[in-house]
Amino acid sequence: MKQPDPEDAAVAGTSSLCPTCVEWRCGVGSLLTPDEARQIAAVSVRRQVPAGTELMATPNLRDSCIALLRGVVKVSRLLTDGRQQIVSLKSAPDLLGAPFAPPGEVSVRAVTEADIYCVPRHAFEAVVRQNRGLEHRLHLRALEDLSEAEALLLTLGRKTARERLATFLLDMAGRFRPAEIGKRCDTLDPAYDHDTLDLPLTRAEIGDFLGLTFETVSRQFAALRRDGLIDFSDARRVSVKDRKRLRSAAGT
Amino acid sequence: MKQPDPEDAAVAGTSSLCPTCVEWRCGVGSLLTPDEARQIAAVSVRRQVPAGTELMATPNLRDSCIALLRGVVKVSRLLTDGRQQIVSLKSAPDLLGAPFAPPGEVSVRAVTEADIYCVPRHAFEAVVRQNRGLEHRLHLRALEDLSEAEALLLTLGRKTARERLATFLLDMAGRFRPAEIGKRCDTLDPAYDHDTLDLPLTRAEIGDFLGLTFETVSRQFAALRRDGLIDFSDARRVSVKDRKRLRSAAGT
DNA sequence: CGGGTCATTGATGCTCATCAAGCACAGTGG
DNA sequence: CCACTGTGCTTGATGAGCATCAATGACCCG
To answer: Which residues does the UniProt record annotate as the domain HTH crp-type (chains A, B) (predicted)?
Structure first.
């Protein structure tokens, strides 16, 4: 399944990755055993893509799953007039597009530069059939995704703009601590400030995630800052100043 | 696993069910083979519950899955101040609460009178482990639920009230044709009017599903009626008068 | 008949979208 | 080196869309 591919050349350029973590990365977290990870890697093509790349662009890719090794990716649904709703934010190490799932009418776009494995869907499915227990783990992962989607439904359906932003910040905290974007080797380093995060998204993308306009996102951030719940060192780096009040601002 | 239960007495009261369909009903659609359905039934307790019953009320039930044999059930997430978002509407025959899923912080409430099987989670999981292929079908079902949730995310995040109502009506059409609420034996009867449906939900519940107030639901229904897209014979019975314009009103 | 739930409709106001202007910054090419 | 341009962010002014509050009618049931 592993075809020689010009994209493979890009692998050389990714040697800045922590070498001791490569296998773990290939493992997409705890989803795969090392052996399963090797089997997946054997049928995959590795690529490095710049920020903004649409990953479901070609029919070839539409029939693949994507293992995200580094970077952040947004999964969106679109209306014909251009309105867009981000339905899921994925960060390494995670899997995009479940095997057995019909491709679905979504857009999948890299938010940051990203390293990915493209896994042909039918090859992935063959690996799943050959490894007892893997489908169970995929099933659990799908149920977690469903639960996350339901939490976002509550946010979009019933929360105010301020509550949405507070919810979003609490959600992002812990996922995007500074200098961790695209680097996960340091997860166990206790020196990190758990209350500071680097937002990988623009204001417009945050709006697309929360069902708001980018102006409203900007204004509500300013309001939360005025109220002393958070602070910004620059537009993308937020510090949670008062987690208790931020939680209460999120409406539980 | 089958305990003698006072609720079993209620079974006698459900003999109005089409007898030829009982097994199919137990099968929760195409999810279960007849044999699997029998195994599930053997470890379950059947109950009939009135409209409005909270199904996750007791710890006992919280640790069960529910096979919905007849009726409509809403799955909601709640905010502490009482705001509510319906994240999923289930109608017979369907399954509520996946095996292996952590119980989750949801409310599950019967919208209509309903017949259910309560399946202890661990017993269900044992059946899954003993039937190759069943987990695969549950996995596919979870992925479908996820896709539905994403579609609702787009609706809540990016559509206007009018678009939400149009989307909702198109979604309900085909699910709730008249006289089919709680009766599924007649699915193949071609005499039914595919453009008329009986809404199982109150205006307030539709609002909780679409992230609107009941007044807005009522007003938008009135507007769609004025515009000739739909008509009401009574508050719950809708006819789609112009499916093409309704689709365009739904924003695709 | 009285009280309950459900639905409709009107009046009013708040929240957030829209439109618009200006600033900071990075990249590009003269 | 410095306009020139594009992108991202902030802030202000205005208005639309929907929530809120309130009154009323239909229906059902004890």
So the answer is: 159-244
Q: Give contacts of A 107-166 with B, CB under 8 A.
A: 135-136, 138-140, 142-143, 145-147, 149-154, 156-159
Residues of chain A with pLDDT under 50: 1-21, 180-189
Query: For chain B, which ranges sit under pLDDT 70?
Result: 1-27, 178-192
Q: Which residue of A has its CA nearest to B81?
A: A251
Question: For position B152, what pLDDT does the model report?
Answer: 98
Preceding omega of A93 cis (within 30 degrees of 0): yes
Nucleotides on chain D that have an atom closer than 7 A to a protein CB are 8-13, 17-22
Cα–Cα distances in angstroms (integers) from residue A243 to residues A122, A227, A248, in the given order: 45, 12, 9
Nearest to A242 by CA among A221, A228, A223, A222: A228
CATH label of the domain that carries residue A193: 1.10.10.10
The domain containing residue B117 runs over which residues? 6-148
Pick the last residue of a domain from B108, B123, B148.
B148
Query: Measuring CA to CA, which residue among A127, A120, A15 is closest to residue A66?
Result: A120
Tokens standing for residue B139: 């996995």
CB pair distance less than 8 Å for B157 and A85: yes
Instruction: Examine the domain organization and report whether A167 and A138 are in the same domain.
Output: no
Q: Tell me the CA–C1' distance in angstroms for A235 and C20.
A: 22
Give the total number of structural domains in chain A. 2
Q: How far apart are the first and last CA of chain A?
A: 48
Residues 192-231 of B with CB under 7 A from strand C: 202-204, 214-215, 217-219, 221-222
